[in-house]
Give the backbone structure.
Amino acid sequence: MDFNMKKLASDAGIFFTRAVQFTEEKFGQAEKTELDAHFENLLSRADSTKNWTEKILRQTEVLLQPNPSARVEEFLYEKLDRKVPSRVTNGELLAQYMAEAASELGPTTPYGKTLTKVAEAEKRLGAAERDFIHTASINFLTPLRNFLEGDWKTISKERRLLQNRRLDLDACKARLKKAKAAEAKATLWNDEVDKAEQELRVAQTEFDRQAEVTRLLLEGISSTHVNHLRCLHEFVESQTTYYAQCYRHMLDLQKQLGRFPGTFVGTTEPASPPLSSTSPTTAAATMPVGPSVAGLAPPGEAALCLEEVTPPASGTRKARVLYDYEAADSSELALLADELITVYSLPGMDPDWLIGERGNKKGKVPVTYLELLS
């Protein structure tokens, strides 16, 4: 019991001495041991690393989960060391609503068929998003959290110890200075000065030892940067994969929608002269219409007879291909991105399609894959 009381009294005395030293330094009434420039640079770099890691971590969490309530829920599950429950993505929820709407409004109608196709695509997009969130959380967020909750806490602890050792050292320097001043006035015995010098040597040794420990930890920030760099590459790779999957899913959906018979079929009256707009969807309505050809029936009723197709006497247009397109059958023309082809329309054609010619080859091409040139 007496030992514990003495220890508490000793700790209280040390704390009081440090508080006095710290206060006097703030008011400029005591000298302060300064760290060397290299050490200060290490401290500054460590602080910057911690601050930016926190900002990047928080904003990446927002990117992966925009809902703040869901982020709080996931945080609580992690703190309780429990598995976060699986959550339906927005894309998957939209897919569910579209599928239910198609079922109720009529799955065989043009609108119902389109809803079903789009729902399938949204479901695949939702699954891709789920995979991206999972991969990014493991390969990017987890290493950042581990640094903040592990390495940085260790660094902070050792820095606090170093601060205490410095305060102790400077307090010993102040006591020795006072002892020597008192000795000069013959008010103290030499053993008081010797005691102050011994305390100073001990404090200097402890400060130097703690400074070396802290320095090694701060220099380890370089390894942290290397690790975060690797994680950043993995994050970019997972994000690239995610967007590539989304692009492929939407491209497939675009092809599927392009092959559906148009619900609203325009008239076969001659169109106005070509516009300067390069919008594929609006420009398609202004394409010149060629003469009617035997064997060309409304979409879905008969195959296009390419041998009997002739371009109009005037008004054909050039178009730049936006994406690669693989012909589904012999009536379609395969396309390569960035190539130029000649296009025109024919009476009775689905407004989503045009006739395309490249050299001696011709066939139907989807309007959504083209940029019509003025």
The radius of gyration is 38 Å. The CA atoms of residues 186 and 354 lie 110 Å apart. Residues 260-302 have pLDDT under 50 and may be disordered. DSSP finds eight helices and five strands in the chain.
